[in-house]
Every structure is written in C-alpha cells, then in structure tokens.
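Practice set, problem 2.
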Amino acid sequence: MRRARAFSPAGISGLFSAHVEPPDPYRKGARGAGLALASGVSVTVEVEESERAELECYLNGRRAELGLARRVFERIARRFGLSAPYRVVVRQEVGVPMGGLGSSGASALATALALGRALGLSASYIELAREAHVAEIEEGTGLGTVSGLVVGGAVAVVRPGAPGYDSVVRLVADPDVRVVVGFFAPISKRDALSRVDLARVNELGMRALADLLREPTLERFLESSKRFAARAGFMTERVRRAVEAAEEAGAMGASQAMIGETAFAVAAEDRAERVAEAMRRLGARVLVTEISWSPARVVP
C-alpha cells in the first residue's frame, strides 16, 4: 500500500463575484479576495491496486461519506487515465470550524495533491489543483477557494478560473499579524444565495475588488470586505456585533467570512487576545491563527 500526505491552509473569503457562465469548467470560478490561514486541513491517502474500485473516507477519525473527496478521485482517475481499479483510503483532519473558512476547498486541494503523490502520477501541482477546483464547483461547495490556496498569503483573484487559467495577486501585509475568527454557525451556501439578488451581489463584489486593487493592502481588504458583506445582505446580527466588538477591542479591521455566520478580524499580535475575548463574550467559538504565506503542499 502506498501512502502520501498533504496539507492545505484553510481560507477566508472576504468578498467575491461569481462567474459560472463559461461552458469550459476550468474557466468557471470567482473573482474576489481573501486570506490563507496557518490552520487548515491535513489529508492522508492510502492506495493499492484491488480487484474492484473502493473508496473509504474518514473525517477527523470517523468513517464518513465525503462526496467531494470521491469527486476529486473520479476526476483525477479520468484525467490521468487510471485503468486498474484501486482501493483508496482518504483520511481528512480538519483543524478549523466548518462554515465560512474554506475547509471544502482546502480538503479538495489536499486530497488531490496526496492522491497524485500516492498514485505516482506524472502530474504537475497545477494540474492536480485544477481538478480540485473543478470538483469543488461540481460538488457545489465553492467557486474560487482553491485559487488562493495554491498561492498563500493575502490574495486577490483578479481573473476567475482553475489554477493556471486564473490570475492571482498577493496583497501587502505584515507577516506578524494575527487572524481572529469568531465562529457562530454554518450557513448553507445555497440558502444564503437564494435570499439575495446574485446579480447585485456580483456587481458589489466587482466594485469591492476594484476598490481593493486601487490600494492592494490588508487594511483596504478589510474595509472593502466589511462594506461588501453589509451591502450584499449576508451580515447577520451576531456577526455585525462581533465585527463592532473586534474593532472596539483594537483590531485593524473586521468583517464576515463568505459564506458563514463567522466573523473575522486582523489584529497586531499584542492585541489579538483582546479581540478574541471580545468575540468570546458574544458566544463565538474563537480561533486565533496566522496568515499562511505558504501554499498547500505535500508533507512528510
């Protein structure tokens, strides 16, 4: 049995504009901006040839049916012409709350990288990442998370699509800042999007991105994200209160993670715990982490 392991940062999206019209699946995606987080998803893949195809999945140590992992494997099998049946075991360890922190995209990307290594494929990093991107869109769990996670840091996706088709730029940011995440509850993406005017959301997202690109800094990202979340209609009352509390506690800025009932703030290291405590007082489950300046990768 061959084994490989990969890690992907989780990711916060602060603003977005969906682009799903192109018939080519590799050109579908989203423009937007966000942060890759030092906390994320580890995936271990074990493969061996078998008499029949089998896929066994575990999530945080428990057996689970992971539709996205299955779709990633099926896409890779078709793309790289795997003919022999395999028994595949996928073990995902998710180190962030599930809801607005890009865990689906991180899981898809780490699974693709680990599969490529375990199967011994003659596939580049970008080729594997493309299949993760398309698998996530097909599964309905995201649109553009993977684009940021193959770059790392604070990023803006200025052209949508799978890695290699997209265009991503990094923002200027102090590497020592902390990201404080206040998680209240997951939100169904489908339900959230059904309650808003998506055409208007996309227009607001494009405006917010244009505003950010005029001054591509972390501070402007936070301002643009907060304005987008409020105007697009996604910000819940609990998130609004958490954003205000974080800013009052000394954060550089704060907004809502897309799409979840999750607030996030960026703060100097010496103010991060004060910001975290302000969110805890509102009932949030809090995670304090760093921006990951390293992208998703295969690990020992």
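Problem 2, part (b): a different protein.
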Amino acid sequence: MRQTARMTGLVAAFTICPAPWGPLHVAATATGIVAVNLGSETPDFVDGLARRLHGTVLPLEDGEVPADWRATLDAATQQLGDYLAGGRSAFGLPIDLRVSDWDRLVLGGAARLQYGEMVGYGELARRIGRPGAAQAVGGAMGRNPVPILVPCHRVIAGDGTLGGYGGSNYADRQAALAIKRELLAIEGAWPRS
C-alpha cells in the first residue's frame, strides 16, 4: 500500500507564489504555515524542509495532501499576493512556529510590529525585555522560518540602515537586502529604488 506508507511520513505540503523577486515557497502542516522561503530553488526548499521536519513534503497539487492543508495554502497564497500588491497590511493565517524559546520570544516581538513600523535590533531587544541583546535578536531574525508573516524585515540596524536580511537564502547579501527593501517599500516605510 504505497499510499498508506507515504501518508505516514507526510509532514508538510507546499506551494509556490509569485513575488517581485521570483518564486516564494510556502509550506503548511496540520497546524499551520511552517515555512516561507524567499529565494531557494524548489528542490532545495523541499529537501531542506523535509530534513527540518523529518518527513515527506509534497506539492499542493498532490492528491495525498489533506484538504485542510490545501485550504491553509490557498489562503496563504491569496493573502501573500494581496500583501505583495499593497492591498493587505495584516495576515490571518495559523502559524506552526517550530523554533527555540529564545527565537519564539524574539519573533513574537517582531510579530507585534505594525505594518510600516521599523525598529532597530536593539530597540526590539529592549521591547522584549532583553536590553543589550541586539546581536542575538539579529540571529533570531535570520532564523525566522516564516518571513513576511512574522515581519523580520521591519527590524533594521540601529543607525537606520537595513542591516541584514535572513528571510532569503540568496547567497548574495545584496539580493537579500533588495528583497527587504522591496518589502519595506510595499509598506511605505522605505523609498523604492
């Protein structure tokens, strides 16, 4: 029974959404959105997610993907598309956030940032009750598995520059920063290049 054996290992399903910089990969589990990836090739995204979740990751179109996972991915595609077109300022999606307690604290702080609001890494550290932990906040931002949905792009360097951007797997730092710049421009928080 190939189908039964395959289903026991199914941990996530994914889809691809268009974005101004290229494909945006989004994955869901029974709990919610578990990954948003801004810059990987599809095989790399699927392989990395399968290793992280220890199981099989299937495309949305696969007949073995449960209906509720499909519904979550369809909603994510719609909401992300609306956001990227400038027509959405908040998301109403369940998130399956599988991170350390520290990262959960930091990402929770980032999730409270309003549309178009930018804060420095040090300010976010202060807001979550960990003043002086700016560098550790930056590390957590770089590990964010669901960028855009948890808006790590809104966290910038204390001097007002972009800082870094870990929401993308692009090897080129400048390409990653271009995505961060684009996301902030969509929100009216950064001038378009």
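Answer key, part (b): Residues 2-84 form a domain with the Double Stranded RNA Binding Domain fold (CATH 3.30.160.70). The helical segments are 2-8, 42-53, 67-84, 101-111, 121-127, 134-142, 173-186.
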